[in-house]
Amino acid sequence: MTRPAIQVRDLTKQYGSVLAVDQISFEVAPGELVGFLGQNGAGKSTTMRVLTTFMPASSGYAWVAGHDVMYESMEVRRKLGYLPESVPMYPEMRVEEYLLFRAKLKQVDRTVRTKRIEDCLRRCRISEVRRRLLSTLSKGYRQRVGLADALLSDPPVLILDEPLTGLDPVQQEETLGAIQDLGGQHTVLFSSHHLPDVEKICDRVIIIDRGHIRFDDRLSNVRAQAPVLVFDVRGPQDAVAKMLKDYPGVTEVHSVAGDDGGHGFEVHTRNGQDLREAVAKKIVEAGWGLRRVDLRRPKLSDVYMRVVFQRG
Ligand SMILES: Nc1ncnc2c1ncn2[C@@H]1O[C@H](COP(=O)(O)OP(=O)(O)OP(=O)(O)O)[C@@H](O)[C@H]1O
């Protein structure tokens, strides 16, 4: 069996009386691109800081590329590229100057240094700003310079803390593309609040909530879940809801916002049966206005909302 690129077992981190991470366990396989999600304060950065040897755990274990983060921190650092939430930089340096300085610090071999920097500039889509002073870069470019820095030593594992936060839509798209290109060649664990973006590029997502892992699955499994039927009906809300609930094969009905004047309903059916035509007919026969019929495939946001709202 292949050794996991990241392995976390019963990891706990306490800041004084604040229990930030409570006995979490998960693994990331080599080459996987995993989204690490959770509300503000859920414990994402804390987990990442322990994995990057930035701070020690209170208890439990973690290994990166097979090295213990506690006892083999130098080895872990050699195998790891880390993009922190806010990238510390030297404003008076030019982009390529900064990357050269960082490459020397990271002891990137002199014979491959120039090529490696060129490679990182290209992969992070920042070649056009290579001569610019860091102080004059927009946040999107700064983030990608930080990403290039994380990639300099060509580490097998990358940990990126909210690389998309605070970027405009174009910058977000550029940065997302750069991260997507890393998948397969590197193992990437990245935290984000941008669910549609995570959905676009990740193989798997882990959701942490109040220090506990609440969800850990492949996105293909999320998409394979039963679809939901959506109806917008102009009619008495309670009567419509009762008819839908009583319809054979329907297992759950939820009221949601409807289109102007109508009531929205999300309908779950046994084994994901597609009852659109049959239910629509029943609505029309009852004399109610049918404004919309739809079949919605489950999305990451559905899973996320369920996890966050169903917590105890
Ligand atoms: N240095 C610290 N001292 C005390 N408490 C801390 C410290 N850092 C984080 N915390 C607390 O630990 C908990 C987890 O914080 P963490 O920063 O890991 O969350 P997060 O999921 O990264 O949140 P965000 O999305 O806002 O970055 C929060 O309750 C936070 O207030």
Automatic annotation (TrEMBL):
<dbReference type="GO" id="GO:0016887">
    <property type="term" value="F:ATP hydrolysis activity"/>
</dbReference>
<feature type="domain" description="ABC transporter">
    <location>
        <begin position="6"/>
        <end position="235"/>
    </location>
</feature>
<dbReference type="InterPro" id="IPR003593">
    <property type="entry name" value="AAA+_ATPase"/>
</dbReference>
<keyword id="KW-0547">Nucleotide-binding</keyword>
<dbReference type="InterPro" id="IPR027417">
    <property type="entry name" value="P-loop_NTPase"/>
</dbReference>
<dbReference type="InterPro" id="IPR003439">
    <property type="entry name" value="ABC_transporter-like_ATP-bd"/>
</dbReference>
<keyword id="KW-0067">ATP-binding</keyword>
<comment type="similarity">
    <text>Belongs to the ABC transporter superfamily.</text>
</comment>
<protein>
    <submittedName>
        <fullName>ABC transporter, ATP-binding protein</fullName>
    </submittedName>
</protein>
<dbReference type="GO" id="GO:0005524">
    <property type="term" value="F:ATP binding"/>
</dbReference>
<keyword id="KW-0813">Transport</keyword>
<dbReference type="Pfam" id="PF00005">
    <property type="entry name" value="ABC_tran"/>
</dbReference>
